Amino acid sequence: MSIIRAGIAGIAALTLGATASIPAQAQGLGDYYKGKRMTILVGYGAGGTYGRTSLLLGKHLGSVIPGNPTIVVQHMPGAGGIKAANYAYNAMPKQGYHLLMPPEMSIVSELLRPKKVKFKTKNFTWLGRVFGQNTTVVVRRDSGVKTLEDATKKEVIVASSGKGSPTFLIPTLLNALVGTKFKIVTGYKGSRKMQHSMEQNETRGVALGWTAWYSAKPQWFKGGDKSFAIPLVQSGFKRQAGIEHVRMIREVLTNKEDVQIAEMLATASLLGRGLVLPPNVPKKLVAPLRKAFAAITKDKAFIKDAYKRGLEVDPIGGADIQKRVIKILAMSPATVKKAAALIFPPKKK
């Protein structure tokens, strides 16, 4: 297969049974996908929410695409998902048999790290997302920090996977705009390693998606005043179900431009775990594949399987995501420049 190359971590093939759980919904494709194999490329390893969501789609999505193609999942980890996104944009075959699960920080990376990014987010064709999650800063209860205001007075060591990740970007933004004293330690490989660092008291907190928190460590948040961990603040456009009492970053800011910067980072919750086509795929495929994606996210068997895997189903359609991506990318250059200076300040000579 042409997209297989050095650096792809692994392949998990999932062949669908002859009987689909619901009838094929997308029309207008004829036999285009009959007997074919489709590929979902993921820029992360297999164990996290990206890996689990891609396998979930791999198992079910073919049942609503005419011809019931087999779905294959491939992993190309690196640079917080940017490596796979760069590859998908520039080298992925464009016949409609190859899809990408893009990193949730695609917009942020494009605007703030242009030298690392070789793609234009708006030129991907969005099919939809399965769910989004608010990045939530969580700290150990015994850290001495119980509120966001406490974090402006006391240093808290937090774990991070790298500078392209919400685990770095969100604490850095809070340090710049709110005055928190998060000390960020990078280099942890994946959410489980970061959570383990908290358990071992190497670090005292992490900024991770709430689904990653609650699917892996629900016991941390039980016990009321005796719980192991406390959610301090969340990044998104609306408060996440289950932590409605926790404030949004945008709610603690007063400057309009600062709110826009916070909303830029909140796009991670919009993009979430979804699928895109690379540029220049035949236009006739777009509407049927979007319809198929919408159909599977409403399927009872799909939803049941998602929750069994510790995932949510909170879909947004591809056309809606596309419009919002274009709007956010139209942010003023001055605001983007300010955000870059706050989060990635130039090195002192």
Order of helices and strands: EEHEHEHEEEHEHEHEHEHHEHH
Regions with little confidence, pLDDT below 50 for 5+ residues: 1-26
Mean pLDDT: 89
Count of helix runs:
11
- By CATH, the architecture of the largest domain is named 3-Layer(aba) Sandwich
Distance between the termini: 48 Å
What is the beta-strand fraction?
15-25%
Shape annotation: globular
At the fourth level of CATH, the homologous superfamily of the largest domain is Bordetella uptake gene, domain 1
Strand order of the largest sheet: 8-7-9-6-10
Helix content: 25-40%
Structural class: alpha/beta
Radius of gyration: 20 Å
What is the CATH class designation of the largest domain? Alpha Beta
Main beta-sheet annotation: 5 strands, mixed
CATH topology of the largest domain: D-Maltodextrin-Binding Protein, domain 2
Q: Give the number of domains.
A: 2
Topology:
Layout: E1 10-14, E2 37-42, H1 49-60, E3 70-75, H2 82-90, E4 98-101, H3 106-112, E5 125-131, E6 135-140, E7 156-159, H4 166-177, E8 182-185, H5 191-199, E9 205-209, H6 210-216, E10 229-235, H7 256-271, E11 273-277, H8 286-296, H9 300-308, E12 316-317, H10 318-329, H11 333-343
Parallel strand pairs: 2-3, 2-4, 7-8, 7-9
Antiparallel strand pairs: 1-3, 5-11, 5-12, 6-9, 6-10
Please sum up the structure shown:
The chain is of the alpha/beta class and 349 residues long.
What does it look like?
By secondary structure, the chain is an alpha/beta fold. It folds into two domains: 10-132 and 272-335, D-Maltodextrin-Binding Protein, domain 2 (3-Layer(aba) Sandwich), CATH 3.40.190; 135-267, Periplasmic binding protein-like II (D-Maltodextrin-Binding Protein, domain 2). The chain contains eleven helices and twelve strands. It has helices spanning 49-60, 82-90, 106-112, 166-177, 191-199, 210-216, 256-271, 286-296, 300-308, 318-329, 333-343; strands at residues 10-14, 37-42, 70-75, 98-101, 125-131, 135-140, 156-159, 182-185, 205-209, 229-235, 273-277, 316-317. Helix 1 (49-60) links the parallel strand 2 (37-42) and strand 3. 48% of the residues are buried.
